[in-house]
């Protein structure tokens, strides 16, 4: 899928091109990602299982979670 | 998957199938209670057993969980055993008295369903007049009582266009917003299912909102149905997707004691009853949730066949896969698959 297509689809919900651009993932270094995951395991913040339909909580929005 | 050990870390309790709403998208077809629903002591015994199996979190849902007069006793037992509690409710019954009790329980989250940005849409989907105003008031009351509050929106063709308006309503309220797609299970009619393009638009919406606003302004999340392994947009689930967790880290118990890997699965996935066996016996039984535990790459169906993430992903959400395609291990509402075809 081309980025233009993403912008076009985003328009269905009134998302501007600038906002849609924010949704795009960046090619982050895999080492950085591994360090983040490692740290998260060490401090016991997450279980590494996807959130179910059980109802997310503000507790699920730790800083490390947002980096994943 | 990083977590290899099979433990029922998340318990899902369908406290009752009885419900005081009649939502058009209800996957459980809730309304009347089941024959011979579990009694308080039976639920508490389930909790004791799950605590011994290292359960960390239990979700009370239904039907409408607050219709059970003993919800507080059941919750107290869970809390006393050191397990976190979340509730999924339609909000209609929540009053001052319930909020006072909830404060004592200190739940991880109380989730209230809001299915439209206005009373016309919400009440139409939920089929209870006046429910929108009542639920919005309950959300405000929960927040005032400093209870972790979440709004859950099941997105379908009726409310799809209202997401931006809903976002504006929830902004800066300290409320978590969880989006999921309504899937054709139970009462939900397939013609109201989002198209793949609309589904992708919702994913972009969640991702851009997450990036645009801080955790304080609007913590937003897509549930497990918003996967998987997109090459283009950020992970809207937050958590990395490591495959369906039914029977891996999740166990679902229906109000009549029947056990499934996950409550969103249809009746043919019932694999025991807590009245006949201990939970540990059911959980450790060879073949329990074999669709996940003994999964092989050749079990994949639909667009998932030959996917390089197939082994890890196991074809996405099993419930969504069955609901939309009638087949297991082949959730076609997959961001990666859509990106490859559009």
Brief synopsis:
The complex is a heterodimer of chains A (68) and B (342). By secondary structure, chain A is mainly alpha-helical.
Helix-and-strand structural type of chain B:
alpha/beta
- Please give the share of residues in helix of chain B: 25-40%
The H/E string of chain A reads HHHH
What's the pLDDT, averaged over the residues of chain A?
Answer: 75
Helix content of chain A: 40-55%
Q: Estimate the global geometry of chain A from the Cα principal axes.
A: flat
Oligomer: heterodimer
List the strand order in the largest sheet of chain B.
7-6-5-4-3-2-1-8-9
Q: N-to-C terminal Cα separation of chain B, in Å?
A: 29 Å
Radius of gyration of chain A: 16 Å
Brief descriptors of the model:
heterodimer, A: 68 residues, mainly alpha, 49% helix, 0% strand, B: alpha/beta, 12 helices, 13% strand
Account of the 3D structure:
The complex is a heterodimer of chains A (68) and B (342). Chain A is built from four helices and no strands. Chain A has helices at 3-10, 17-23, 30-42, 63-67. The radius of gyration of chain A is 16 Å and the shape is flat. Chain B is globular and about 50 Å long. Chains A and B meet through α1 and α2 of A and β2, β3, β4, β6 and α7 of B.
Summarize the SSE layout with pairings.
The complex is a heterodimer of chains A (68) and B (342).
Chain A: H1 3-10, H2 17-23, H3 30-42, H4 63-67
Chain B: E1 10-14, H1 40-52, E2 57-61, H2 71-80, E3 84-89, H3 96-105, E4 109-113, H4 119-126, H5 131-144, E5 149-155, H6 163-170, E6 176-181, H7 196-212, E7 220-222, E8 250-253, E9 259-260, H8 279-284, H9 290-293, H10 310-313, H11 318-325, H12 335-341
Parallel strand pairs in B: 1-2, 1-8, 2-3, 3-4, 4-5, 5-6, 6-7
Antiparallel strand pairs in B: 8-9
